[in-house]
Design brief:
By secondary structure, this protein is mainly beta. The chain is 9% helix and 41% strand.
Length: 171
């Protein structure tokens, strides 16, 4: 089994970018998931295996991916070099609605969530921005629900099972 992750790992990644302007969002699917992802780029919810990158004006990148942990899968801040070279494609997020509202927005905070069954592992992150009332959610799960799964769920607005998520920490 993988290592135990905690809110501290993610806190360090987000403390570097709080108050910074989001300049780019990149989806980084495994190659086999790329065709399905490209077909759904304009939707408010994307699901694929791989990673996502948030790039900020201060040249910091928050690279989020899934990792197998003690109790299953978790969302972690990682390093792109930890993936095998050329195993992830890179697709820039559309600058059209619904994703356009996040470009140029200032990261106000991030909230870390788990489910009662996740053993304390972080399964989802809600990103709050000053310029929009919508939140950018990135987590692990399947079929629109945050859960123990090796796919990323990225959405404008909360996942289907938001009422079953427990807040771990606000950053």
């Amino acid at each position: 089994m993988g290592r135990k992750t905690d809110a501290h790992d993610l806190s360090a990644a987000y403390e570097r970018v709080l108050g910074q302007t989001l300049t780019e969002i990149a989806w980084r699917p495994i190659t086999s998931d790329t065709p399905d992802l490209v077909a759904t780029l304009g939707q408010e919810r994307l699901e694929y295996s791989g990673a996502a990158s948030l790039f900020f004006r201060n040249r910091e990148e928050v690279f989020l991916t899934w990792e197998q942990c003690v109790s299953g899968y978790a969302i972690v801040a990682s390093n792109p070099q930890e993936w095998r070279p050329l195993s992830l494609d890179l697709i820039n997020a559309s600058r059209e609605f619904p994703w356009s509202q996040f470009f140029g927005a200032t990261l106000q905070g991030a909230s870390l969530f788990r489910t009662p069954r996740s053993g304390g592992e972080v399964l989802a992150i809600r990103h709050r921005f000053e310029e929009t009332s919508e939140a950018l959610w990135i987590g692990v799960g399947h079929n629109g629900e945050v859960d123990d799964h090796d796919d990323l769920i990225i959405s404008v607005g909360p996942p289907k099972n938001v009422d079953k998520l427990d807040l771990i920490k606000d950053i």
